[in-house]
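Posted in: Structural Biology > Protein-Ligand Complexes

Title: Requesting predicted complex, 4'-phosphopantetheine in pocket

I'd be grateful if someone could produce the 3D structure tokens for the following input. Sequence and ligand are given below.
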Amino acid sequence: MHRAVCPGSFDPVTNGHLDIVGRASKIFDEVVVAVGVNQSKNRLFDAEERISMLREACEEFPNVRVDGFTGLLTDFCRSNDIQAIVKGLRAVSDFDYELQMAQMNASLAPIETVFVPTSPEYSFLASSLVKEVATYGGDVSALVPGFVLERLTARLAERAAAPA
Ligand code: PNS
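-- Reply #1 --
Done. Output follows.
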């Protein structure tokens, strides 16, 4: 059984993430989408919300499951018998940091990182930009699944209505 992990923050999941997950699911027997729930970043969606959106988005992939993880990704890989980390590369600018993480992870555990080039139509896509564009009323409907767009729009409206 060849099992891989697609790790990330997924705040929220985008069509770019799903492109990588779907392609990974054709290469590996099983793919675990692992949502990092470390407390370090300010998130728009909490861990349960991010996991729930991913589960819905990944329903179309029969060999993909979604889980959360805390701590080191390599520890999650060990405890789930995962041999490979799959990362999407959007541009050369992603490569430096991703290479550094791949090498650090390889120094911690016998785990390969497999880089998958992002499909050209998603090469500019990042959750942070989706949130920023949506915050100012831009159209992100082609960039995230429909149900994610609904939750994003609702959450941004809640935030906008909340007292500062
Ligand atoms: O979507 P992101 O924010 O780029 O995802 C980053 C993530 C969650 C994949 C990365 O921060 C991670 O692996 N965190 C777990 C902690 C860890 O293992 N750190 C060492 C990385 S070399």
